[in-house]
Amino acid sequence: MGLVVQKYGGSSVADAEGIKRVAKRIVEAKKNGHQVVAVVSAMGDTTDELIDLAEQVSPMPAGRELDMLLTAGERISMALLAMAIKNLGHSAQSFTGSQAGVITDSVHNKARIIDVTPGRIRTSVDEGNIAIVAGFQGVSQDSKDITTLGRGGSDTTAVALAAALDAEVCEIYTDVDGVFTADPRVVKKAKKIDWIAFEDMLELAASGSKVLLHRCVEYARRYNIPIHVRSSFSGLQGTWVSSEPIEQGDKQVEQAIISGVAHDTSEAKVTVVGVPDKPGEAAAIFRAISDAEINIDMIVQNVSAAATGLTDISFTLPKSEGRKAIDALEKNKGGIGFDSLRYDDQIGKISLVGAGMKTNPGVTADFFKALSDAGVNIELISTSEIRISVVTRADDVNEAVRAVHSAFGLDSDSDEAVVYGGTGR
Ligand code: ADP
Ligand code: ASP
Ligand code: MG
Is 323 part of any domain? Predict the structure, then answer.
């Protein structure tokens, strides 16, 4: 039997009991004949608590130091997990991201993995150990500083290691039984998905379904690594994310027309008011934003008022980048030319994802009808081939998700989705 990479999220290792439970699961896989590499996240909400702490000593902590601080969270889990495994009579060794060969670029707080050289991990498992790796972190190739991969980045560590070690599968253990047709914390009648194609999962993840991080799915698709998302609290089969449908008994699982509904309240909207309606303006605005290394999501340009020749341009971005974006635009105000900036962090995004959208023109109309029946006002719209997203008031998001989920017949008529742990933070 081959090598498996297992990743345990923060809620799975939230306390000593959790760590002992996870240790037992890992030992079970080892006893079944696998070589096991386990990637761990920080315990519970440790990462959030460390960020809060940093902000108490400095309103905008330096990226390098914040990374140093945050990587401590995963180090605590990895060492405790190795101890718990040893206590069960098996040998385990823990490794930081840097020791595991996770090499990144030098963008602090959201570094990208550029190479994985897992020599030490390979040696460790070949010698019969269980290797435990701290997720979410790496080391910059250029500066040699410690970096982090962005929130939820342990998922990416796991898939990147699975690719580099040519693993059979990458198992992502979390606090729900798999990927559901909507966030089970919001939609009690959400259904577990048995299999989902990389493409649909990419869109769900990019639209806020944080059960898997977008970058991790991108990585898995590039290297064709099947992901099995499942609960560390139950023995149930979870969701397979892969390129080809799985077999279940003697029948093949089919691709759904609609995969699910995602929502996201982590973004804010910036509106650049009074922009001259002439070529080069959008380029100047988004150059300033990209020079500040900020990723944006949706963009809308309003028609210009004939009388003034001025227009407004709105875009959405992670709330955590809001301050930086405003500063970057203010700094370039003279060069760009605009009147003022508006910042709105009370927005939410709802997205419907499904391969069936390509061939079914009625989907868009039904989506808007469901939102209007729920009395939800739409502020921005964006689409891809297999996704439609709208921005609404943050307060409307949960209601809107439930309305859309029902309207597309996704509600389950049996068991309610179980959430085993976590605070949803
Ligand atoms: P972990 O700590 O294991 O990384 P996360 O909190 O990052 O866990 O991700 C699991 C959470 O993702 C679930 O508790 C659930 O609230 C949320 N979630 C959002 N969308 C979905 C979805 N479509 N299916 C399952 N879980 C989802
Ligand atoms: N601990 C990190 C976070 O909370 C990474 C992770 O959990 O994947 O974002
Ligand atoms: Mg996560």
Answer: no
